[in-house]
Structures are given as C-alpha cells and as structure tokens.
Fold this protein.
Amino acid sequence: MRIDVFTIFPDAVDRFVSASLVGKARRAGVLDIRVHDLRAGAGDPHRSVDDAPFGGGAGMVLAADPIFRVVEAARPPRPLLLLGPAGRRFDQDSARDLARAKVGFSLLCGRYEGVDQRVADHLCDGELSIGDYVLAGGETAALVVIEAVVRLVPGVMGNEASAAEESFAAGLLEYPQYTRPASYRGWEVPEVLRSGDHGRVARWRLAEALRRTLERRPDLIRARGGLDPQEQALLEEFSGIAYPQESRGPLPSGGPVTDAHEEPDAS
Ligand code: SAH
C-alpha cells in the first residue's frame, strides 16, 4: 500500500513514520510511504508557500499553486484527502475503508489559517477531520490517520486477530487486558483469565466488553440496536447487570451512565 503525505514539515512526518510498526512495515516493503515537501513547489527564492487571506483577517493561508505543483508532479494514489476541522469525522470505519484501498491514499496537511479553497475544490477528493478541535497543522492529524489505517493492513500487525477483537471492531469497546504479574501491589488479575478455560475466558471477555461499552459509551450500544438475549444473559451472569438497566437501577461500578460522547446527528 502506498501513502503519500504533503506537508511543509516533511522531516517531522518522515521521522515519525520511520518508527514503530509503521516504520517496520515500511522497511519490510508492505508500506510505501512517501513524504513530499510542499515548499518544493514554491516559485520564489524564499520558498514561500503562504500568503495573506483575501478579504483580510488574521494569519496566512497556504496558496494553491505550490500545492498543485507538488501534488501533480507526485501523481499520488487517490483518494487525496485534505486534513481539516471542516472534514468528515475520521473513525474506525473510515480507517477500515482506507485500509481496503488497494493502491493506497494520500493526505494533504494544512497549516496557518488553512488552505486556499481551490485546493479542496479542484485537487482533493475529500476532507477528513480527526475531531472537533483545531490543531496548528494537519501533520499530527495525518499521523493519526496513518497509524489507525496501517495497523489494519494485513502484514503490519504481528497478530492479525488483535485488530478483529479490539475496540470498535464489533461496535463495542474492548475488554480489559492484563499481563504478568498475576498479583501486583495486592491487585489480582481476574481469576477467570488464569483458569485456562478458553470458553469461559471468551465469554468473560465479551461480557466485560458489553459492560464497559454500556457504562462508557451507551451511544455505541444504541447504535448496534441494543443487546441480544444471549448478550443480556452473559452480562447478567458475569457482571450481575440486568439489561435494560433502567429496570434495576445504576451500574455497579458507580457513576452515572453518561451520554457525554453522544452525537445526536451522527450518521
Ligand atoms: N482556520 C481553520 C483552522 C486551520 S488549522 C478553521 O477554523 O477551520 C491549520 C491546519 O491544521 C488545517 O488546515 C488542517 O490541515 C489542520 N487541522 C486543524 N484541525 C484539524 C482537525 N481537527 N482535523 C484534521 N486537521 C486539522
């Protein structure tokens, strides 16, 4: 898979994608990540890529011409996605879609007050936002997208199964994980995980995933249409939680079920 990144900070992006799993996959030839310097497209000796906004106002805007030049010369894999707070919200589903892109995809990082609109209108194929906050530049957002996508690409993570089980994979948060020692400062690893009973471990994990999701992200439970009777039974067996919860009061771990993450108009 090829991923092209367009940025005015190529060294920073390159350094990061050379590290960890992404770097390993890159060296193994599974990933072909090419980082392009937008300043290479500047026409003047100062290599300036930004200019003041038409209509006035604070800050500078990345100009169209250097971006068009560098992108057109690189002929990057499409879709070419502009990173920006006005884009479509990036999530695990978008990561999965991008991971399936055969050829690859490309990311364009804005800076300053943003990018000349003609770049979004006539060069890019879409816009992605990593959340409702404003960053100083698209580079960290590009890295977020790359990490989320790349770990879903076959051959990148050591254990393919882990991506299928983890948070959001089935519309649930992941169950809690533990490693050695079995007892740490008096805090014990749940007995079931040490029982060697794989069937029971699997059922406990699903019950914990359900409990956690219900507790922390009830919006996710609603989005998957609630719990089926088997899941309800599992939850009751392992966590003593009756679902729907309204009938038996609050969850045992304390704290109200919060809708803080809810997005009423998310679709
Ligand atoms: N003035 C713009 C923000 C510019 S921030 C506005 O109000 O919408 C500068 C650059 O940072 C953007 O061009 C974009 O590439 C990047 N950026 C900022 N916030 C982002 C977010 N939430 N997701 C993805 N990229 C973001």
